[in-house]
Amino acid sequence: MPDVHVLVNDFVVKLRKRKIEGSKATAKQTAELLRSVISQQRMPHVNQAGALIDAIKMVGEQLIAANPVELAVGNIVRRVLHIIREEDLSLATAAIGGLNLSAESDEDDNVDRDDHPVLSAAAVAAAARSTLRPPSLQALLEDVPNPAAVPRSSSSGGDSEGKSKCGFMFGSYICRAAADKTSKSWKLKHNVIEAVNELIQDISTCHEQIAEQAVEHIHQNEVILTLGNSRTVMEFLCAAKEKKRSFRVFVAEGAPRYQGHVLAKELVARGLQTTVITDSAIFAMISRVNMVIVGAHAVMANGGVIAPIGLNMVALAAKRHAVPFVVLAGIHKLCPLYPHNPEVLLNELKSPSDLLDFGEFSDCMDFGSGAGSHLLHVVNPAFDYVPPKLVNLFITDTSRSDVYLVLSNYMKIRRPACIYLWLHLMKFVTVFDLSPGGHNPSYMYRLIADYYSAVDLVVQRRPAS
């Protein structure tokens, strides 16, 4: 297996030179690299989770600095950090739960001992507090029965027997603690790698999972508007076509790179009725459109969208004509940062050659001054920012259609009481954003809480002590 430092350096070079295009490819390769880092990380005897977190943060800092505009890199680093913390907490809670000894009854009562360990609230709290460190001796001894509470026998033999029982219980407790600690040491890395494998699988299938929801949103004889070229949008539209939905697609060409031309050719090859329009014609054509469906570069914590240049104009036109503006984005594009965070770089400038050939710049140079100062400046930004107030719905690869399907079964029952219950359940669905296949912009904070830890929002290693 190649050395992990070589893999990291090669990937950093690719990010700096922008050799990896697309958030999906970047996210998948980042997750695969972090999996290699975890698998080759040597685990210490204590604080295994802390060692993994430090290793991931050390690599994550380099990757984020190599291409700060590609927010998917930081998203995956934070996702892996969250996975490590969750797995460590799960193992710590299970270990402390298994170490709880059930209280023995008095011999005079002649009651059998309960063989099932009892997980006390104090043990769970201790596990939560010690997420990044192994249980301390004090935590292990919290649930040991107090010897003073054990009834003493009047005979010296009974007293020695009670002491031997307490000593046996204490010895068994410490032995089980050592065994659970050893088990946790090798289980942690294995569980984290398995979770990262699931993350990679989710990234690989995000297009298909989003496309499965197309039939719920695209209806017969509708007109859909999109801009530029997005594979997620293409798979979404083609999935609706495969479900025998007949609709028409307007594709804005997406100057200056004209990626809309590529998408239009692919849609026509898949049998969709497609019309290519110029970007300047969007406002004129929006009144004929039933829905705007676009992709995204990143989704911020406030529900705002970083998208290809020109989409803010599309969102404003859709808002003006009350046309739903729908954004398709895999969950790996969800960024837990806000646009005003200093570490967020919202844009980058592309080469002016996309607009003008370099040979044409010579006509715009002032050679009379001798320095050849520029009279013409070309600005070619790559991204737009769409505020959350212009977005109506996010469709991600985390669908909640199962909840909706369970509730819809109530419609099969015609009794008034059940219909009344159905109405209240549908109100619950609306209030808590459980509509099938989509999220409101205000729901982003819930997704962030599920996939990220607050302590990892800023990826920075702990200072050396």
UniProtKB/TrEMBL annotation:
<keyword id="KW-0648">Protein biosynthesis</keyword>
<dbReference type="GO" id="GO:0005085">
    <property type="term" value="F:guanyl-nucleotide exchange factor activity"/>
</dbReference>
<keyword id="KW-0963">Cytoplasm</keyword>
<dbReference type="GO" id="GO:0003743">
    <property type="term" value="F:translation initiation factor activity"/>
</dbReference>
<dbReference type="GO" id="GO:0005829">
    <property type="term" value="C:cytosol"/>
</dbReference>
<protein>
    <recommendedName>
        <fullName>Translation initiation factor eIF2B subunit beta</fullName>
    </recommendedName>
</protein>
<dbReference type="InterPro" id="IPR000649">
    <property type="entry name" value="IF-2B-related"/>
</dbReference>
<feature type="region of interest" description="Disordered">
    <location>
        <begin position="143"/>
        <end position="162"/>
    </location>
</feature>
<keyword id="KW-0396">Initiation factor</keyword>
<comment type="similarity">
    <text>Belongs to the eIF-2B alpha/beta/delta subunits family.</text>
</comment>
<comment type="subunit">
    <text>Component of the translation initiation factor 2B (eIF2B) complex which is a heterodecamer of two sets of five different subunits: alpha, beta, gamma, delta and epsilon. Subunits alpha, beta and delta comprise a regulatory subcomplex and subunits epsilon and gamma comprise a catalytic subcomplex. Within the complex, the hexameric regulatory complex resides at the center, with the two heterodimeric catalytic subcomplexes bound on opposite sides.</text>
</comment>
<dbReference type="InterPro" id="IPR051855">
    <property type="entry name" value="eIF2B_beta_subunit"/>
</dbReference>
<dbReference type="InterPro" id="IPR042529">
    <property type="entry name" value="IF_2B-like_C"/>
</dbReference>
<dbReference type="Pfam" id="PF01008">
    <property type="entry name" value="IF-2B"/>
</dbReference>
<dbReference type="InterPro" id="IPR037171">
    <property type="entry name" value="NagB/RpiA_transferase-like"/>
</dbReference>
<dbReference type="GO" id="GO:0005851">
    <property type="term" value="C:eukaryotic translation initiation factor 2B complex"/>
</dbReference>
